[in-house]
Amino acid sequence: MMRFLRWFLGFVVLGGLIALIIARPAPAIFYPDLPHTGFVVRALYILLLAGALCMYRIIFGPTAADRIVAIDIIGILIVGFCAIVSIATNRTWYVDVGIAWALQSFISTLALSKHLEGKGFDE
Amino acid sequence: MKAKLVLFVVVFLVWLGLSWSVDVQHLVVGAVVSLLVTAAAAGMFRRTPRLLKRPGRYFYFLFGYVPLFIWEVVKANFDVAYRVLNPVLPIRPGIVKVKTDLKSDLALTFLANSITLTPGTMTVDVDRENGFLYVHWINVKDPDIEGATRLVAGRFEPLLRKIFEPEEESE
Amino acid sequence: MSDTLGMVFIGIGLFFDFVGCLGLVRLPNVYNRLQAATKCVTLGTCSILFGVFLSMGFVAAGIKALLCIVFLVLTAPVSAHAIARGSHRSGIRLTEKSVTDAYAEDDEGEA
Questions:
Q1: Sequential pLDDT tens for chain B (171 residues)
Q2: Which of 24-83 (C) contact A at CB < 8 A?
Q3: Which domain holds residue A68?
Q4: What's the structural domain count of chain A?
Q5: Ranges of each domain in chain C
Q6: Which string of b and e fits C10-34 if b means at least 16 CB within 10 Å?
């Protein structure tokens, strides 16, 4: 019973936030003077909401492994964020930033999981 | 030597895709960078040129493996979405053992990655000597080795054997 | 036309990204979280990148987006595998709802 109540509460809060993002034209703090801003700004806000869920897991994660998972996932989200920003602004080097971020986050995740396993970094 | 040449060509093609412009400056810088990368990393890819011997396996790879992989990935995502959005969280997690006959490193890597991205399963560890994979399954249907092998690896293993391991008989 | 198709792909990608992060919050254990989040976020971001490729066409940035899809598909399962192995080695058990744990049994047998 408690479980359904929590599910319903989360559904109302997150669904309300998404409906707010989609229905109201959100304040365009990302490059407000560029074309097709409406869809792109909504997409960026939804990605920010997903990143906020990851931040919840980073802050309140019970173990270190949870935090590492959330850091990995937030790295992949940032790649998508960079791609959407690049079509919003017509600045194509944002895709380069995304590629570099993907590779760096892969390497840092490998290093963190090695450290979790209890080994040194040079094995 | 041949392995280094193949690695150089692959790295140079990736460079061309990244820069996507054909003028002298990009080509020269790309050649220099590819040479450096080849000199630094040639030891890791010593066994690659065997893959060039049989062109038939690229046909299997492109038209057999890739569509199956994309279809399984899409199915996996709808499965996860169903499980996450359901209020009662219908999961029965567990780690099962899966037996595999694949031996080469590349084939095992592809099998493990395919298992990770397909519905409900994720590879935790590989035991290369005995040919076992330890697979975390979000909804365990069969905890035995045989049943789990049939359900988890049965879709990919024959195809991957056809792609990566026909050279074992010919050598 | 291809702009609209790109927006459709970006929308699908946003849905799956969001579901993956929701799974990261809702599911009970490291392994389940890792599984849901890796699958959904990888496909979601690949779909976003494919939408970016469609709406840009065959220019430098579009080809870079395609290459980035290849990098992501190759690297995301490997990092998930590394995290799962590390957390199992560091002693995190499965949830009490779980059915079987063949890996822990074999580890104890070896030790």
A1: 666 777 788 888 888 887 777 788 888 888 888 888 888 876 666 555 455 566 666 676 777 778 888 888 888 888 888 888 877 777 777 777 777 777 777 777 777 888 887 777 788 877 777 777 778 877 777 666 666 667 766 777 777 776 666 554 443
A2: 24-25, 30, 33-34, 37-38, 41-42, 44-45, 48-49, 52, 55-56, 59-61, 64-65, 67-68, 71-72, 75-76, 78-80, 82-83
A3: 2-117
A4: 1
A5: 2-110
A6: bbbbbbbbbbbbbbbbbbebbbbbb
